[in-house]
Amino acid sequence: MKKFNILTLGCQMNERDSETLAGMLTEMGYEQIDDRNQADIAIINTCSVRDHADRRFFGMLGQLKKIKEKNPGFIVCVCGCMMQQQHIIDQIKEKYPWVDIIFGTHNIHRFPRLLGNVISEKEKQIEIWEDGGEIVEGLPSKRLYKHKAFVNIMFGCNNFCTYCIVPYTRGRERSRRPEDILAEIKRLVDDGVKEITLLGQNVNSYKGEGGVDFADLLRMINEVDGIERIRFMTSHPKDLSDRLIDVYRDCDKVCSFFHLPVQSGNDNILKRMNRRYTADDYMELVRKLREARPDISLTTDIIVGFPGETEEEFEDTLKLVEAVNFDSAFTFMYSKRKGTPAAEYDDQIPEEIKHDRFDRLVETVNRCAADRNARFVGQITPVLVEGVSKSDEGCVTGRNPQNKIVNFPGDASLTGTIVNVKISEAGTFSLVGKMV
Ligand code: 5AD
Ligand code: SF4
């Protein structure tokens, strides 16, 4: 049996796309393996959101070259967001001409055809589609997890935040039809899935056929029998309506967990980022969400060192983090992305200042996270068990509705079940307890 290996960089959208690639290859009779040295086909699904991911990609290509030198029949495929940028394609053609297949984010369904062409014609295949195609339904998928699944509800982004490459690599917003989404979720339930995460760059601006918006869609999904937990990401504060918050409050299967990227706590920076809300608007949303769901866990994304950010403006971000008291946050140093407006701003921040701000932000975020986790001590919380813990022998690990990692004594037979756990200890990143 021929074997393949996929390396996925970046976000959950990419993870979901890799599941589709794995599904197509599995249908073609290939077997997925972890060791790329033993593979016949290697795929790198790339991310271009920050330069760290770019660098990892080029480092990995170097490794694949060594495998190809030993095994000339080894097929190397690269895809994902980086491939939607012409300067990257040019660089690959020039410096890595031995790459066999290059495709982008809009034509994943074409992969079996491109692979067939490489095998039969022994000729490299480069196929990048511009934005604007139809959503292709019905592709196979080989899921990463048994009991939880990602479901795309929309693709692309229309927001053009000035730092962000996504609108250029993923194109304009397109929403899937509600009936296609519901049919996929029903199939997942039949297959034993208990938790779904609805994915989109900006789920709050979902616009399905028949005028169905995200609030309507959540209600419809909440009615599906057999689904126990519903999550979604990512939400944009400017599109989070009162109506959606009402629906969120009322849908019992939707978890008390909300990821709401704030990016900065300073109005001038938010304006220059083209975020279209103020720090006060954000605080008001936090108030409404906590009113709707007092047990909610709130997480966010934050960028430090955006061009022109002063010390005082950065301190506004620290103040906002303290004021919200986030459950956790993904923190990033601003990274220049070719083709975005902010990359051209002439007031770029020196790296050492970015590092200093980043460290101070992480310290503040961790303090909030530890404080928020402490509220669970003494409480009983339902945990969907993901499997045995890799670090603690005799323990299993899972997540509660607030998306907290919970570790407790148990064995593999608990995997995929939801059990009640009484929390005895809380750290910065996880909780510890005992099944009750
Ligand atoms: N530099 C740093 N962080 C970025 N993000 C997006 N673009 C950049 C960039 N150029 C962050 C944002 C976004 C998250 C997915 O990545 O915080 O919400
Ligand atoms: Fe990027 Fe902004 Fe769109 Fe998010 S909303 S994908 S940060 S442009």
UniProtKB/TrEMBL annotation:
It catalyses: N(6)-dimethylallyladenosine(37) in tRNA + (sulfur carrier)-SH + AH2 + 2 S-adenosyl-L-methionine = 2-methylsulfanyl-N(6)-dimethylallyladenosine(37) in tRNA + (sulfur carrier)-H + 5'-deoxyadenosine + L-methionine + A + S-adenosyl-L-homocysteine + 2 H(+). The gene is miaB. Pfam families: Radical_SAM, TRAM, UPF0004. Its main location: cytoplasm. It comes from the Bacteria. Binds 2 [4Fe-4S] clusters. One cluster is coordinated with 3 cysteines and an exchangeable S-adenosyl-L-methionine. Residues 143-371 form the Radical SAM core domain. The keyword Iron-sulfur applies. [4Fe-4S] cluster 2 binds at C157, C161, C164. It is found in: Cytoplasm. Its EC number is 2.8.4.3. SUPFAM superfamilies: Radical SAM enzymes. [4Fe-4S] cluster 1 binds at C11, C47, C81. Its cofactor is [4Fe-4S] cluster. InterPro entries: Elp3/MiaA/NifB-like_rSAM, Methylthiotransferase, Methylthiotransferase_CS, Methylthiotransferase_N, Methylthiotransferase_N_sf, MiaB_methiolase, rSAM, rSAM_horseshoe. Keywords: 4Fe-4S, Cytoplasm, Iron, Iron-sulfur, Metal-binding, S-adenosyl-L-methionine, Transferase, tRNA processing. This is tRNA-2-methylthio-N(6)-dimethylallyladenosine synthase. Monomer. SMART domains: Elp3. Residues 374-436 form the TRAM domain. Belongs to the methylthiotransferase family. MiaB subfamily. It is an enzyme of class 2 (transferase). CDD domains: Radical_SAM.
